[in-house]
Specification:
Elements: E1 8-14, H1 20-32, E2 37-43, H2 49-58, E3 63-66, H3 73-82, E4 87-90, E5 100-104, H4 106-119, E6 125-130, H5 135-150, E7 158-161, H6 165-170, H7 172-177, E8 182-185, H8 188-200, E9 210-212, E10 229-231, H9 234-250, E11 258-261, E12 264-266
Parallel strand pairs: 1-2, 1-3, 3-4, 4-5, 5-11, 6-7, 6-8, 8-9
Antiparallel strand pairs: 10-12
The protein binds alpha-D-ribofuranose (RIB).
Length: 275
């Protein structure tokens, strides 16, 4: 700060500022940052992650938080290690065990959706996925498929599309053709697109088809119909990540830390009993 006390600069890389999930994480870090801590956020596509890292390090970042997968991890690891810059991973880096991390119970989340749809009598259930699946989403999918298989079921169709509202919208044609009575859409962002696409086709949710999303972003309860989804405690994730990396800066030799949060099914209007 201006008085010359020790400033800490932390760089945070997320996939996009436009996704409400990451916007909430950013907000919670900002809200919880002590006054002597500066945060620099970058929204980065896969291609320029390396540049994003360099640019944050050049600006003097003393620690980094990654909300997206790190390509060439060995290289990045070495680059940061050499400069004594610790880093933490959250959300999309779920299978990395070699540093501080904040994760949620993705497998349970996927499983909760499957149990819910099964309990409503659905047997023809579609799965709509982003075409680039990150580790955490793989676990989400695994939990869903695992629980479906306990009822001797597999998805009627698996549709892949971009992780966006447009992707959701674009998957609707195939969804309708599959004659599924329910669909699990891997995140709310895509689920919102699916709801819009079904509305264009005059297909009623949940009377004709049930739709479940994932994240419980703040739009979920304002959609028509309101969206059944899995709540990730996104504000706590942001806060925990920030506290953990600050702790790391204060205690560089601590063993690696993990914070693990539970998720919760939020049942709203978009899912109902099979006809
Ligand atoms: O909306 C962003 C999605 O990508 C979330 O499901 C989150 O878990 C992330 O991986």
């Amino acid at each position: 700060n201006l008085k010359g006390t020790h400033n800490r600069l932390i760089g945070i890389i997320v996939p996009s500022f436009r996704m409400p999930f990451f916007a909430d994480i950013i907000q919670s870090m900002q809200d919880n940052a002590p006054t002597d801590v500066n945060l620099v956020f970058l929204g980065s596509t896969d291609d320029n992650l390396q540049n994003a890292i360099y640019s944050l390090v050049e600006r003097g970042a003393q620690a980094l938080i990654f909300g997206k997968p790190i390509p060439n991890r060995a290289e990045v690891n070495e680059f940061l290690k050499k400069r004594h810059i610790p880093y933490l991973v959250l959300d999309q880096n779920a299978d990395i065990n070699a540093q501080d991390m904040v994760q949620t119970n993705e497998f349970t989340g996927g499983s909760l959706v499957a149990s819910h749809l099964l309990s409503l009598g659905h047997r023809k259930i579609a799965l709509i996925l982003p075409n680039k699946l990150t580790d955490n989403m793989r676990q989400r999918r695994a939990g869903f498929l695992d629980t479906l298989s306990t009822a001797n079921l597999s998805p009627t169709t698996i549709i892949t599309a971009t992780l966006s509202k447009h992707g959701g919208l674009a998957s609707v044609h195939q969804l309708i053709q599959s004659e599924s009575t329910a669909a699990f859409v891997l995140n709310d962002e895509m689920a919102i697109g699916v709801l819009r696409g079904l509305a264009y086709q005059n297909i009623k949710v949940p009377a004709d088809i049930s739709i479940a999303g994932y994240d419980d972003t703040d739009y979920a309860e304002f959609m028509i119909p309101t969206l059944t989804t899995v709540m990730q405690p996104v504000l706590e994730i942001g806060k925990a990540a920030l506290n953990m990396i600050l702790r790391r800066l204060d205690h560089p030799n601590l063993p690696f830390q993990t914070a693990f949060f539970d998720v919760k099914l939020i049942v709203r209007e978009s899912t109902g009993s099979v006809k």
